[in-house]
Design a protein that fits this description.
The complex is a heterodimer of chains A (about 270) and B (about 110). In chain A, the strands form 2 sheets. In chain A, strands 2, 3, 4 and 5 form a 4-stranded antiparallel beta sheet that branches. In chain A, strands 1-6 form a two-stranded antiparallel sheet. Chain A is of the alpha+beta class. Chain A is about 50% helix and about 5% strand. Chain A is globular and about 60 Å long. The N and C termini of chain A lie far apart (about 65 Å). The chains are: A alpha+beta (about 270), B mainly alpha (about 110). At the A-B interface, helix 1, helix 8, helix 10 and helix 11 of A face helix 1, helix 2 and helix 3 of B. Chain B: Plays a role in the assembly/stability of the mitochondrial membrane ATP synthase (F(1)F(0) ATP synthase or Complex V). Chain B: It comes from Rhadina sibilatrix.
């Protein structure tokens, strides 16, 4: 029997009809047998049986990279009885890139990304407890040093509540560096930055200086410290950790797959 | 370059994750074939520190992290957060009541 939607905002119970007037259902049944990829005019498309996948705004779902299309198809194919949209991070990123629901242009995305530098996690230091301050120094200083060397900028760190004082030239350097990425890759970069709460960690990850696991660890450094001290709560800590890892990995992979060049092929053909 | 370990190890773990995600026909899935083809294509190289090889390895490690984390996250969700709300009958039963069958409270 269909129930009227509950008055208070809360998660719909699984197994009940998930339809509510103001939000799409979190899960729906898998309605397709086969997932395949085809190449169309705009790029690679995903086919669910004979139907072409569309974005939430009903545009045709096309991606520029075959590897990305394969990964998205794998996401759709690995859904079992119900489609769990919250696990399909690459699909979500592609939908965001295609629909651009926040309607931001390239410069607005770049400015939003660089703005994070003012409150970058790795630049915000505590003074106590001393063990945590020491841990932050040992783990975060090397990343800042790497970024300063790699981009030839001054960043520094701060224990003040106002955060570090980032010179305008540093911001401009990052703005012009990010401008070299295309719109799709930028959506991915901005996503990773919002997940990790740090521009420096995101650039370190995208430049392949650290792995996803390491970036997530550094982003959650204080949490990890508290977990070591007070104990781990699986249903909260591990849950958040896995979700953050999944999203960050998806964002990073998305950026790399959207900014690939075909120089690899040239090298192979030379032999 | 990030500390990644042996490419073979990453490849094996990645193929294992794909097998878990796909089910019976994992060997025919486009992802499985694409990963194997990419690794084979990059095996033969004249340079010791081939940049393309490192980029591929990083990509593979990132994809492995994605698949693994999604699987673990889903498992945790099922275990701890997946049960949803109780029905009104169950809630009443918690304190020993039964819901009335007829309007008027009978």
């Amino acid at each position: 029997l269909p129930r009227p939607p509950p008055a208070a905002a809360g998660s719909c119970s699984v197994g009940q009809c998930g339809h509510r007037a103001y939000a799409p259902p979190a899960e729906r049944k898998r309605f397709y047998q086969n997932v395949s990829i085809s190449q169309g005019e705009g790029g690679f498309e995903i086919n669910l049986d004979h139907r072409k996948l569309k974005t939430p705004q009903a545009k045709l779902f096309t991606v520029p990279s075959e590897a990305l299309a394969i990964a998205v198809a794998t996401e759709w194919d690995s859904q079992k009885d119900t489609i769990k949209f919250y696990t399909m991070h690459l699909t979500t990123l592609c939908n965001t890139a295609l629909d651009n629901p926040t309607q931001r242009n390239k410069m607005q995305l770049i400015r939003a990304a660089v703005k994070f530098l003012e409150t970058d996690t790795v630049c915000y230091r505590v003074e106590e407890p001393p063990a945590l301050a020491e841990l932050q120094k040992n783990e975060w200083d090397p990343v800042i040093t790497w970024a300063e060397k790699r981009y030839n900028v001054t960043i520094g760190s701060s224990t003040s509540i106002l955060g570090p004082n980032i010179p305008a030239s540093t911001k401009e350097t990052f703005v012009s560096h990010l401008a070299s990425y295309n719109m799709w890759a930028l959506q991915g970069i901005e996503f990773v930055i919002t997940q990790l709460k740090s521009l420096i960690l995101s650039m370190s990850l995208i430049d392949r200086h650290i792995t996803v696991e390491k970036a997530v660890l550094l982003s959650r450094l204080e949490e990890e410290y508290q977990i070591q001290r007070w104990g781990n709560v699986e249903w909260a800590h591990d849950y958040d950790l896995c979700e953050l890892r999944a999203r960050t990995a998806a964002g990073t992979l998305f950026v790399h797959l959207c900014s690939e060049s075909s120089t690899v092929k040239h090298k192979l053909l030379q032999d | 370059m990030a500390a990644l370990g042996a490419p073979l190890r990453t490849l094996r773990a990645l193929l294992r994750e794909l097998r878990q995600a796909a089910g019976r026909s994992y060997r025919d899935s486009p992802a499985y074939r694409h990963v194997l083809a990419a690794f084979r294509a990059h095996r033969v190289t004249t340079e010791k520190l081939c940049r393309a090889q490192q980029e591929l390895h990083f990509q593979a490690a990132t994809y492995l992290c994605l698949l693994r984390s999604v699987r673990e996250h889903e498992a945790l969700h099922r275990e701890y957060h997946g049960r949803g709300e109780r029905s009104p009958q169950e809630v009443a039963g918690l304190v020993g009541f039964r819901l009335p069958q007829q309007p008027g409270g009978k």
